[in-house]
Structures are given as structure tokens and as C-alpha cells.
Amino acid sequence: MASSLSAIPHLIIMSAEFITGITVNGFLVIINGKELIKSRKLTPMQLLCICIGISRFGLLMVLMVQSFFSVFFPLFYRVKIYGAAMLFFWMFFSSVSLWFATCLSVFYCLKISGFTQSYFLWLKFRISKLMPWLLLGSLLASMSIAAVCMDVGYPKNMNNNDFLKNATLKKTELKIRPINGVLLVNLVLLFPLAIFVMCTFMLFISLYRHTHRMQNRSHGVRSASTEAHINALKTVITFFCFFISYFAAFMANMTFSIPYGSQCFFVVKDIMAAFPSGHSVIIILSNSKFQQPFRRLLCLKKNQ
Is this model's pTM higher than 0.70 or not? Predict the structure, then answer.
């Protein structure tokens, strides 16, 4: 049963991830929101951070509601948690979080990589103007994915006794529909994953070329551009780890193949919650403009 002792570590981990996620994502929204109020405009990075913070806040709320009901109200969870409203919000926030993370990796890649191809330079000089449209496209794509998933639907009676016991024909029909839905989500979300992988690979190539060029000019010297490449690469690789782990856990959860209430069931939920929390922590730690205000927040403003 979900309320057994096996759920206690899950509750502790999930609560820590939820508190961390709400803190860091709230920080991203507030600190960049203040900048918008002051200057009446936002840089692409600030706009990205606000969108990421809001999307992660929504995803954390959905995951926390799921975890709460799975532990304390298991019967309600098994019957109602995949209803139309919850399914829409889960699919929407999951998708938009992954798309926004991909937009951030594209931004890093274009701004830092040293490629000189004409199409790359065209994108590099126009990314600031294109970013709002990329974010809008991500939003519309995520809403479409969520709407299609609602239309495909999941077995409404997947945990009822009748579904477990009777009618092999009904059972077969009910199984076919969720598999089609999962395949659809897989195919769509593999696209931002492919872009993410490509951006990471391009940063690797750019760093290798830049490092090789600098070594030929002066041994043992690290330029500011090299440091920027290395820092961006570390950030994107960390993003990639969170991205892959969430994607894998999300898809495993969507297949309904993991026994409900098992240890693996709770581990999958914890992995999913690590993405919206950990990814935003890395954004703050990798940006010097965010580090000082965030440290002041953690230290509760020692100067007061």
C-alpha cells in the first residue's frame, strides 16, 4: 500500500525537491520581474528565465499533487489522477518545460559557439529577436500536445476490478489507446531532445577547436572565450543530464508498466521532480548576475 513505510523516503525527497524548486523558480521569476519593472524591457536570457521559472513552478505543483494523492489517497489517485484536467496540465507543463530548456540550450550554443557558417551567423545575430517567437511556438506546441493527449485519453477504469478481471476484448482495446498516446508523446518530445543533443555536440566541437587554436598560439593560457566555452558546456551537460533523466522517467511513467506503490514507482516520481528543481538551481549558479542576490537570499540578508 502507498501509505506504507516505503513511501516515507519518497515523501522526504519529494518535499525537499518541492521546497527547493519553489524557492529557486520563484527567485528566477521575481528577480527578472523586478528588472522588467525597472527597465520596462527584458533581455532574451531574462525572458527565458521568467518562462522557465513559471513553467517549472506549474510542473512542480502537478507532480506534488500527484505524489500527495498517491501516498495519502491511493484509491483516488488510481481512479481520478489521470482525468482530463490533470492529464492536460501534466502534459502541458512537462512539454513546455522541455521546450523552454531546449530554447535555453539553443541560446547558449548560438551566443558562445565560434562557428562562422553564414546560416549560423544569421541565427546568432537574430536570436534576440527570434527568442519571443521561439517561446511562443514552444507554448503553442505544448498546448497542442496536451490537447491531443486528452483526445487520445487513457483507460478510465484502469484500476477497477472489472478491468483487472474481465473481458479480454475490452482489456485489449483499453491497452491499445494509451500505447498510441505514449508513442505520440514520444515522437513529439524526441524533437526538442534531438535539438538539445545537437547543441551540446556543437559546443563540444567549438570548445575543441578554440582550445586547439589557443594552444598553438600560447601554451598554458586560458582566454575569457575558453572559460566561457567551458562554463557553458558544463551548464549544458548538466541540463542534458536532468533533461534525459526526466524524459526517461516521464516515458516510463506513461507506459503504466511500473507497479503502483512499488519502490520503483516512487523512484520514478522523485526523478521527475528533480528536473524542475535541479535545472533551475544550475541556471542560477551558472549566471553571475543571479549568484549574489541568491546568496543574500540564502543568508537571510546578513546586512540587516
Answer: yes
